[in-house]
TrEMBL record:
Transmembrane segments: none annotated. Residues 12-131 form the Cyclic nucleotide-binding domain. It comes from the Bacteria. CDD domains: CAP_ED. SUPFAM superfamilies: cAMP-binding domain-like (SSF51206), Winged helix' DNA-binding domain (SSF46785). This is Crp/Fnr family transcriptional regulator. InterPro entries: cNMP-bd_dom, cNMP-bd_dom_sf, Env_Response_Regulators, RmlC-like_jellyroll, WH-like_DNA-bd_sf, WH_DNA-bd_sf. Pfam families: cNMP_binding.
Amino acid sequence: MQTEAFNELFPLFNAANPETLEWLMSIATEHDYPAGRAVLMEDAWGNAVYFVVSGWVKVRRHAGEDVLTLAILGQGDFFGEMAILDESPRSTDVIALSAVQLMSISAQRFIQTLFKDSQLHHRMLQLMVRRLRQTNIRFQMRHQPPAVKLANTLVSLGENYGQASNKGTEIFNIPFQDLADVADIGVEETAKIMEKLNDKGWIKIDSANQVVHLVHQKQLAHLAGKA
């Protein structure tokens, strides 16, 4: 991957200097995983930071025998940074939702890079604050109707990871259980709302190609209270 492409793909590196980008690319390790494969188990947290080159993953939390999807991440995002910063054990893992390509940088080298490049350090803090704000928004929406919460989740996925297509913004056809977990609603409610949105033409579920087209994102944003 060329330095410019690396910079454009990952918002984290928008402000990094060219020397930093070249160094990171030279030490990064590439990984390819099929759908359903465990990318990172809970006991492996803290070893490296991972960057999503392509595909979709989910972050899960274990509580006894129960498993809850906390987040869905796509192209251009990263994970594993919190574990290397606070050096605490984790009770979460990461699973590939689709075929996924990742790049990893060891914890020690990534922290060294943050110390050397103050712009990268600052950008990292900005993105972590943005994640915290998104978590706060989800908390504030806990009493909203299920359709509003699900629309907010779909719009956020489209804004953060969607790809433009002639049918609207394209996202992965995320399993209803995972969507339900992230939106904090029931899986049966999720199925009914998705079916209704599909019937209204606001979204188009293409199960054969494992994608969902957000056909009318403005209407979805209005439903989500974002417009």
